[in-house]
Q: What sequence folds into this?
């Protein structure tokens, strides 16, 4: 890419896709930072159904991801499917004003997350195709940092709205919609990379991709096992309410989660370029395990703050590094498909995590749910470490 097209040292597409992520996340997190309290305290939806909403919507998102990745590879375009996904999510936000119960919340969250799933694989593929390999870590780190910055603004706005309008949720939802429109408008400045794709493209959804690539298979397997313990953030945000910290502090916990995410995203992205994505992923996994352990053991304010800050380190370290690792493990013509398969493993495991975590919470209490999360997360970490650091696949490639 030409140097004159760079903005603050970043390729033009990376910069504007960062703005898109910022506005979209500010819009989305304005709602999400108050949604758990709204569902639980206003609508009276119990933890099991909160987990069901989040888990099912993530699963739907995963199927949208794998189709979107294949579709993007098929038509050899990245911008069109990704902007459609952003527009679909933003379009749901005015309808949150008419939520009256579980069914409404479930439907809107499913549509919203389907939009998220549809946009991410082609967007991530566009980032990969827009930069040199040596700049992948910084580029994904910037994109995740802008995501996280939006995640900070959203909860801060929520705290202000709660105090100013005394819990008038209708104002949250309308303002969120207008804020989300800026994300769609920012896409005007994003262009296709212009990088020619290989002539051979996937003619069908190629699930054999993970069977013929053993290293990819074990990586996706470890992500799936870890994801079985990855409790939805909306469910985790019920913990401050349960231990008596208060509903007004829920956006604060979400803000701390996003703050840790923002501060750590770019440093982790740079570090992954130096020490390798696998080590950074391990650090992210360990941060999540530590957060679950603290939330299982605590019933007071300060340890809860520490736990949510620790949990913010998990996506900051793992999300970008996982995408880069997938990009290195698959053929270039199947780049978006590979990203879709990764997100499918995450989304399907999220369905089970939401269902199991919510059921354990409802029947046995929050501590049991967090112990389950920490246990399954450790199992995923074990599989990932076993496959990544014992040179098995290096020896297999050397024999080939």
A:
């Amino acid at each position: 890419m030409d140097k004159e097209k760079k903005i603050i040292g970043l390729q033009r597409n990376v910069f504007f896709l960062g703005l898109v992520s910022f506005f979209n996340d500010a819009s989305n997190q304005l709602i999400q930072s108050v949604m758990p309290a709204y569902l639980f305290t206003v609508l009276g939806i119990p933890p099991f159904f909160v987990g069901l909403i989040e888990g099912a919507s993530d699963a739907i998102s995963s199927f949208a991801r794998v189709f979107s990745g294949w579709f993007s590879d098929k038509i050899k375009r990245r911008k069109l499917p990704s902007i459609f996904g952003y527009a679909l999510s933003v379009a749901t936000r005015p309808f949150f004003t008419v939520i009256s119960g579980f069914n409404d919340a479930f439907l809107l969250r499913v549509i919203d997350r389907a939009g998220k799933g549809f946009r991410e694989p082609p967007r991530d593929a566009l980032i990969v195709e827009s930069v040199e390999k040596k700049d992948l870590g910084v580029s994904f780190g910037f994109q995740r940092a802008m995501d996280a910055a939006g995640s900070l603004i959203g909860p801060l706005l929520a705290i202000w709205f709660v105090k100013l309008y005394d819990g008038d949720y209708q104002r949250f939802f309308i303002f969120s919609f207008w804020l989300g429109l800026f994300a769609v408008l920012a896409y005007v400045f994003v262009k296709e990379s212009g990088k020619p794709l290989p002539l051979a493209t996937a003619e069908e959804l190629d699930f054999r991709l993970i069977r013929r690539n053993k290293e990819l298979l074990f990586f996706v397997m470890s992500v799936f096992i870890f994801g079985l313990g990855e409790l939805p953030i909306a469910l985790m945000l019920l913990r401050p309410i349960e231990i008596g910290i208060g509903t007004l502090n829920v956006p604060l916990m979400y803000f701390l989660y996003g703050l840790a995410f923002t501060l750590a995203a770019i440093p982790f992205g740079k570090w992954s370029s130096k020490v390798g994505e696998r080590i950074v992923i391990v650090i992210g996994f360990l941060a999540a395990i530590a957060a679950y352990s603290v939330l299982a053991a605590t019933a007071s304010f300060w340890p809860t703050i520490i736990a949510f800050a620790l949990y913010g380190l998990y996506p900051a370290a793992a999300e970008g590094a996982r995408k880069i690792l997938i990009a290195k493990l698959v053929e270039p013509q199947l780049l978006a498909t590979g990203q879709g398969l990764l997100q499918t493993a995450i989304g399907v495991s999220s369905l089970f995590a939401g269902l199991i975590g919510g059921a354990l919470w409802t029947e046995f209490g929050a501590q049991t749910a967090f112990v389950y999360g920490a246990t399954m997360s450790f199992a995923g970490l074990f599989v990932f470490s076993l496959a990544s650091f014992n040179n098995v696949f290096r020896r297999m490639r050397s024999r080939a």
